[in-house]
Structures are given as C-alpha cells and as structure tokens.
Amino acid sequence: MDVIVDLDARSDPSRWPLFGRRHAAALGVFDGVHRGHRSIIERARRSANEASAALAVVTFDPHPAAVLRPEMTPATLTSFDHKLELLDDLGVDTVVVVRFDQARSEETADDFVTTVLVGALGVAHVVVGNDFHFGRDRKGDVALLEALGLQHDFSVEGRPLSLQEDVVSGGVHHGRADPISSTAVRRTVTDGDVELAARLLGRPHEIRGTVVQGDQRGRTIGFPTANVAVPANMAVPADGVYAGWWVETKNSDDASNPTDSSVPDRWPCAINIGKRPTFYDNAEHSVIEAHLIDWNGDLYGVRGGIQFISRLRAERKFDGLDALTEQLQRDVEAARNYLTA
C-alpha cells in the first residue's frame, strides 16, 4: 500500500508511486475504520474494479475538529498507524493523508477537489458518505462533488450510513435503527459496552500505547500487570474490569520494540481500568493495567495494544487486600473462561 503524506509531491510525478493511474477514491476521516466506513470503501473498490482503476482512500490527520474546534475534539478510536494498518488489510492501493492545519482549513472545497482528487489521484469515481462535508465553511458536499465531477470527468456516489440494525452477529441482528458512526462507536466505548463496539467496528476495540512502570503493587499480591500509557484523547472504555487480549504492536518507523521471542505477540488478559479506590481515595486519573494470564516476563518499554472483548464488572472499592485478591482471582478465571470458550 502506498501512503502519500506530502501533497506537494504532486508537483513531481516521479514521487508518486501510482502517478498516472486513475483511482476510485473513498473520501472521509475514517476514524475507527468501522463497518460503515468499510461499506464506503468496499463500494469504491467495486468502482475501481469496474473502471480498471486503483483503490484510494483520502483521509485527514489530525481530525479536522482538532484544528477547527479543539475544545470539542472527539476521542480518537484508532491511532494513525493503526488506521493505516486497517486500510492496508482492506486491500487499499493508495492512501492520501491530508495533513489538516489552519491553512488547509481555509482551502475552498473546489481547490481541494482540483488539487487532491483530480490533480493528485486523477479520480474516475468518488464515494463519500451522504453527510460528509469538507472545505472552507464546510461547503463541500455530494452536490458540489457532482458538479465538479461534470467538469473534471469523474462520477460521484453519496452513500447512506450503514445502520446498527444491519449489524449481524451469530445470525442475530443487533443494535437500533441508528447509523453506524464514529460517534456511536465512541459512545459504546465510553459506556463500557465493548461487545457492541466490536460489532459496530467489525473487530474488538483496541487501544495502543507503551508499557511503563507503575507502582508494582499488583506484583506484590500475585497479579503483575502491564501498565499501558496511551496517548491523550484516545477512546478508553469506562472504568471496570474486562476480558481481552494483549497484542504486541510497533510503529512502522519505530524499531525500539524488543525482538525477544519471550515477549508474546498475542496473549489473553484480564484488564483493569480505573482509579484503584482500594488503595487511593482521590486518584485524579484512571490507569490501564493488563494482567497477562499465566505469563511472567518483562514488558517495560514494549509497544502493545489491548483488545477489549467483554466487560466483566464495574470497578469498586474492597475492604482490604484479602477481599481484593479473592476478587482478582475470580476476575482472572472469568476472563480465562470467556476467552477460551
């Protein structure tokens, strides 16, 4: 998959690996790359096949709201690297990452189409969600794309958002007649409903970060944990205890991860998110701790992800270490049984 992050490279065709080949493009922010997003990308894929064109995704980084309305920036569902991995898994040929800044926010929708879609990609077809807007004052929409398509010889398809009632798991329909949107996914994550989040995403919700040293209290009571520090503004599930999976990850430009085979690529874990009220009365921030079941080792400095499968219980305060330890034993067994069922 070719990832283009320097849009000025369009002035030098030799720097575009697929320059000169027409594309069918899906346009959007695509935070989460959820089922709704995938329906748009899949429609662009079919158009690409019909036109013997390459499949492109045009996306934005950071989220435009971080520039336009920083106080209202939504929590991030997928890191930049994770989003690229998911797009690569979908078989996308080219990803154009529009670096969104103040100058880009002032660009007219017409100029964006001319420089990015036409000039850089030579689009034959554009697929976009019906509610998507772009360009200065959000004047870019399906109608404008259609008008510009007549001028620049590309067709346009506005797609309705997939509905939650269309999500099927185990042959059973789930959700309501609400759209599958990044906002809806964030809401389920915030509520701790990671099972519904997984159905909307089409995979478990995953947060990524680096294992850092904590207070090592879990080790002293027989439940060592990996404390995962995630970037600010990541969508983290509600405080509570979860069953999930630890997965080792690495930035494409980061070679710092240990290559020791003792570090697991994927491992079942019991996860606690919270302020640890048994030990702290007024902790300011929740911490994310993953206990890798039946595994002992050193993960400090390792980049990893935690995939959330099911919420086991809410966080609560215990009367003492004995009561906490007994509950942790039950949590680990519940997580083990859930993940191996």
3D architecture notes:
With 341 residues, this protein is an alpha/beta fold. The protein folds into two domains: 2-159, Rossmann fold; 204-340, Elongation Factor Tu (Ef-tu), domain 3 (Beta Barrel). The chain is built from ten helices and 14 strands. It has helices spanning 35-50, 64-68, 80-89, 102-105, 109-120, 142-152, 182-190, 194-201, 217-220, 321-340, and strands at residues 2-4, 23-27, 54-61, 94-99, 123-129, 155-159, 167-169, 172-174, 205-212, 226-229, 240-248, 266-274, 287-292, 303-313. The protein has a six-stranded parallel beta sheet with strand order 1-4-3-2-5-6, sandwiched between helices. A six-stranded antiparallel barrel has the order 9-10-13-12-11-14. It has a two-stranded antiparallel sheet with strand order 7-8. Strand 7 (167-169) and strand 8 (172-174) form a beta hairpin. It starts with a strand and ends with a helix.
Salient structural properties:
341 residues; alpha/beta; Rossmann fold; Elongation Factor Tu (Ef-tu), domain 3; six-stranded parallel sheet; six-stranded antiparallel beta barrel; 10 helices; 29% helix
